[in-house]
Design brief:
8-stranded mixed sheet, 25% strand, 3-stranded antiparallel sheet, alpha/beta
């Protein structure tokens, strides 16, 4: 049995960013409309029509708000949302450090022109040693995390400052174990196409919509094109953007 999954965050610092507003105005939930759209799309792809019918944005936001209030905290928290085939929503929260700056600001970093932001740790990013076949469970986010757990185990990922990049059977780069990826190519950030079978993540979608990354429609991002020291822009719906560098030898 599996559930549809999406993880956002509650963080009062998000209220000051107009780009994070939703239909109700300023929102403390990180790009929550994008999470809603992803859950709706995943329900459609899995054929879970009842879950799709029952899920509304207002209901999702209220479930998240109620859980945060129940915890009685004003601190930043990760908000983990699961949805069953019957449309039941379950929300859990766990503490995370609050955002100190715009969580999308690192997407503006140009490795060829800019000095690296000294307050941002560089993530060590490894290339997986085996391919991960694309499937419904890579194209949608669910609680079935076996392919990602196996990739993390192969690269011995045990720290928030390390990550592993996956590739499909055609050697096309797809994503990382808990993030989407973009590589700096010809003066711009380039992210794998959805046609690779990658998860079309919420932060990835926001970055594409705001023209901060481009989609790789020319199949430039393959394992053969990844080099030691390549800059990687990592993005997800809890952490926003982080910067990493490829390490080919562990």
């Amino acid at each position: 049995m599996h559930f549809l999954l999406s993880s956002t965050r509650y963080d009062a610092s998000l209220l000051k960013f107009e780009w994070n507003n939703d239909i109700d105005g300023p929102s403390p939930f990180f790009i929550l409309p994008y999470h809603f759209d992803r859950l709706q799309d995943a329900a459609e792809q899995h054929g879970w029509q009842e879950a799709k019918r029952l899920l509304t944005y207002a209901k999702l936001k209220e479930e998240c708000r109620s859980k945060v209030e129940e915890e009685g905290t004003e601190q930043a928290v990760k908000v983990r949302i699961t949805i069953s085939e019957a449309g039941e929503i379950d929300v859990t929260v766990s503490a995370v450090p609050p955002f100190e700056t715009n969580p999308m600001s690192l997407a503006y970093f140009n490795p060829t022109l800019d000095a690296y932001p000294i307050n941002s740790p560089v993530v060590s990013v490894y290339l997986d040693s085996m391919s991960t076949p694309s499937s419904l469970f890579t194209r949608t986010k669910t609680t079935h995390r076996v392919p990602y757990d196996e990739a993390r185990a192969r690269s011995k990922i045990s720290s928030p400052t390390s990550e592993v990049v996956l590739f499909n059977d055609d050697t096309s780069i797809t994503e990382a174990s808990i993030s989407n990826v973009s590589f700096f190519r010809a003066g711009r950030w380039l992210t794998p196409s959805a046609s690779t079978g990658c998860l079309p993540g919420v932060a990835r979608r926001w970055l594409l919509s705001n023209k901060l990354v481009d989609e790789d429609h020319e199949e430039q991002l393959t394992t053969n094109g990844i080099s030691e020291g390549d800059w990687v822009l990592l993005s997800n719906g809890v952490q926003g953007c982080r910067l990493g560098k490829i390490t080919l030898i562990q």
